User: What shape does this take?
Amino acid sequence: MNHADCCLTLVFPRALEENLVDHLLGHPELATGFTTVHVEGHGAGAAFHSVVEQVRGRSHRVQMQIVLNREDARTLVEHLKAELPNREIAYWITPVLEFGRFA
Assistant: This one.
């Protein structure tokens, strides 16, 4: 097993949440676990899907974080781009200095 040295973060519209979660749960070889949290997107790149979002100037999003090794993160990104192409799915990869469990 490769050392978990990065965090892949995905941010996407809430309407895509079940599809992405189901896809990852169906492919445990790509990600053994992940965390999701509801967030709000701001800025020029934010797409608004409702009048409420337009008025508030914020779009409802889900942020998914997956800690894994760099090679697997790149493989997962390429897989998701091919299987679920969508301009509203943003991602970034950041270093993880340490990862573990308390017990």
Observations:
- The mean pLDDT is 89.
- The chain has one domain: 6-95.
